[in-house]
C-alpha cells in the first residue's frame, strides 16, 4: 500500500471543514491507475463541492478536487495506453485531487506531451477543456462575432479570451477591478468593463451600437444573468456555466421570446467529455494550443498543498486572477 497525505471533509461549509490527514491507498482496482501528484489544479467547482451546493451534493465523507498532473505509479488490471513512470493529466472522476497520491479511473487520464510544463498543464487542463467546449462546441464562436465574457480575468476567462483572440472575435470582458481589467486586456479582451464602476449592460450597448453580442458566457450567475440576456442580439445565446454569485432564479421562458428569440443553455464539462474520443480530441486541441503559445497560464498563483484552505479563501474573495495550483 501507498501512504498519502490527503484532504477530506465530513460536513459541508467554509474552508475550515477540510481536514489534512494521512491515508493508506490500496492498490488500484481494475480500470484504475495510481499516481503521485506533481501539481493540482484548483477550480470553483471545488468550492461548490465543499459547500454542498453543486447539483447533488457529494456523499460524505469525501475528498476534493477534480484535476491534476502526476506520474503513474501503478496500473490496475485491464488498463491499456498508460505505463508506470508516464506523466498524465486528468479531469473529472471521483473528487480526490487534494492529495499527494491518489487512484483514479484510467478513462479520465490523458497522456501529457513532452515539453509541456506540469504546473502550466495543471493550471490549464480543466479550465482549458472548459474553454474549449464553451467556445468551440457549446456555442461555437466565429471570426468577426462579438462575445461578452464575464469574469474575464479568472481562470476560464483568461484562457477563453486568449483563444477567442486567435479565432478573431471581438471580446468584451467584465472584471472586478482596474488591475484585473489590465489582465483581461493582456489576454485578448478588446474591451474590459469594471462592473463595480460601470453598468456593463449600458456599456455593451454602447460598444455594439445597440445591436448586442452574439454570445454571453456567464459563470457569475445571480448578479448578472438577467442583464446578460439584455446584452444579446436577437437569436443570441447565453451560456450559463457557473454561479459564483449565487444560483440563477427560475426563468420564465416566455421572456426569451420577448427579448429576441434568445437561447439559453446550462452546460457541464462532464457531458462534453463523457465520450472518450471527444475527450481526447478536446485535449489534443488544448495541448496544441498550449504548445503553440495560443493559450498560456497567465498569473498562476501557487500554494503548498497543505495550504488549500488559504487557496479557497482567496479564490472566494476574488483575490486571485488566472489559475490557482496546489503543489505537494
What does this entry look like structurally?
This protein has helices spanning 44-51, 118-138, 155-167, 178-186, 200-207, 225-230, 254-258, 269-272, 276-291, 308-316; strands at 2-8, 19-25, 32-42, 67-75, 87-91, 101-105, 109-111, 146-149, 170-175, 191-194, 213-218, 232-240, 263-265, 301-304, 324-327. Strands 3, 4, 5, 6, 7, 14 and 15 form a seven-stranded mixed beta sheet that branches. A six-stranded parallel beta sheet has the order 10-9-8-11-12-13, with helices on both faces. The protein is built from ten helices and 15 strands. The mean pLDDT is 95. The chain is globular and about 65 Å long. With 328 residues, the protein is α/β, with parallel strands linked by helices. It comes from Ferirhizobium litorale. GO terms for molecular function: mRNA 3'-UTR AU-rich region binding; NADPH binding; quinone reductase (NADPH) activity; zinc ion binding. One of its GO terms (cellular component) is cytosol.
Amino acid at each position: 500500500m501507498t501512504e498519502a497525505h490527503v484532504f477530506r471533509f465530513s460536513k459541508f461549509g467554509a474552508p475550515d471543514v477540510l481536514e489534512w490527514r494521512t491515508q493508506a491507498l490500496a492498490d488500484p482496482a481494475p480500470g484504475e491507475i495510481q499516481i503521485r501528484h506533481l501539481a493540482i489544479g484548483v477550480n470553483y467547482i471545488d468550492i461548490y463541492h465543499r459547500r454542498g451546493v453543486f447539483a447533488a451534493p457529494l456523499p460524505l465523507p469525501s475528498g476534493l478536487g477534480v484535476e491534476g498532473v502526476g506520474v503513474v505509479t501503478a496500473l490496475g488490471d485491464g488498463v491499456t495506453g498508460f505505463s508506470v513512470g508516464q506523466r498524465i493529466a486528468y479531469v473529472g472522476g471521483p473528487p480526490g485531487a487534494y492529495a499527494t497520491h491518489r487512484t483514479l479511473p484510467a478513462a479520465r487520464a490523458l497522456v501529457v506531451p513532452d515539453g509541456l510544463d506540469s504546473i502550466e498543464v495543471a493550471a490549464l487542463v480543466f479550465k482549458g477543456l472548459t474553454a474549449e467546449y464553451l467556445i468551440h462546441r457549446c456555442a461555437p464562436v466565429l471570426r468577426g462575432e462579438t462575445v461578452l465574457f464575464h469574469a474575464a480575468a479568472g481562470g476560464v476567462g483568461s484562457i477563453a479570451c486568449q483563444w477567442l483572440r486567435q479565432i478573431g472575435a471581438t471580446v468584451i470582458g467584465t472584471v472586478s477591478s482596474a488591475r484585473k481589467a489590465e489582465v483581461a486586456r493582456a489576454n485578448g479582451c478588446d474591451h474590459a468593463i469594471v462592473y463595480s464602476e460601470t453598468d456593463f449592460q449600458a456599456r455593451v450597448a454602447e460598444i455594439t451600437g445597440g445591436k448586442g453580442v452574439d454570445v454571453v458566457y456567464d459563470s457569475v450567475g445571480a448578479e448578472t444573468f438577467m442583464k446578460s440576456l439584455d446584452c444579446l442580439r436577437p437569436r443570441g445565446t447565453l451560456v450559463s456555466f457557473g454561479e459564483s454569485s449565487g444560483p440563477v432564479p427560475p426563468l420564465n421562458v416566455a421572456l426569451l421570446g420577448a427579448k429576441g428569440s434568445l437561447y439559453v443553455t446550462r452546460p457541464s464539462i462532464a457531458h462534453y467529455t463523457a465520450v472518450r474520443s471527444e475527450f481526447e480530441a478536446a485535449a489534443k486541441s488544448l495541448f496544441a494550443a498550449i504548445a503553440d503559445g495560443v493559450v498560456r497560464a497567465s498569473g498562476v498563483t501557487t500554494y503548498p498543498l497543505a495550504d488549500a484552505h488559504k487557496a479557497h479563501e482567496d479564490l472566494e474573495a476574488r483575490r486571485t486572477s488566472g489559475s490557482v495550483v496546489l503543489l505537494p
